[in-house]
Specification:
By secondary structure, the chain is mainly beta. It has a single domain (about 5-120), classed as Nuclear Transport Factor 2, Chain: A (Roll). The chain is built from 1 helix and 7 strands, in the order H-E-E-E-E-E-E-E. Strands 1, 2, 3, 4, 5, 6 and 7 form a 7-stranded antiparallel beta sheet that branches. The chain is globular, with a radius of gyration of 16 Å.
Amino acid sequence: MPIDSLKIEESAKSLVSQLVLKELPLAVYDPNQPRRVRVPVTSFTIELLEIEEDEGRITVCAAGPVILQTPNGPWENHLRLYAPMEIAEGTCRLGNRDDVRTAYIVLTDFDLGTCKETAALANAESDSAG
C-alpha cells in the first residue's frame, strides 16, 4: 500500500504539536540551578518538520519557537525535538515517548551564527506550593 507522505506529514505535525503543548515536561534551563522545574507551555509553532526513515525506524525532526509560562512571566526559546513515529494503515502515531529527545537551541554569537544546545526537559515536578 503506498504511503501518502503529505497526509503523514500533516498527521505528524499535529501529533508533535500536541506532544509539546500537552505532554512534554519542559523547563527553563538555568546553569546556576541544577533543578529544572516543569512549567506550562503556552505555545509552540513548528517551523521545520522532517520525517527520516532509517532501517525501518521513522523519526520526526521538528523545531520552532516555544513559549513557557514561568513564575517570572513568559519565556521564549527555540525548541528542537526528535520523536519516534509509527505508521500503520497510512496514518501516524507517536512511538515510545521515552525515546523523544529535546533541546533548546541558544544563539551564542549572532555575528558568527554559533549556537549551543541546552537542556529542555524538567528534572523535577512542578512545585505544589507555588
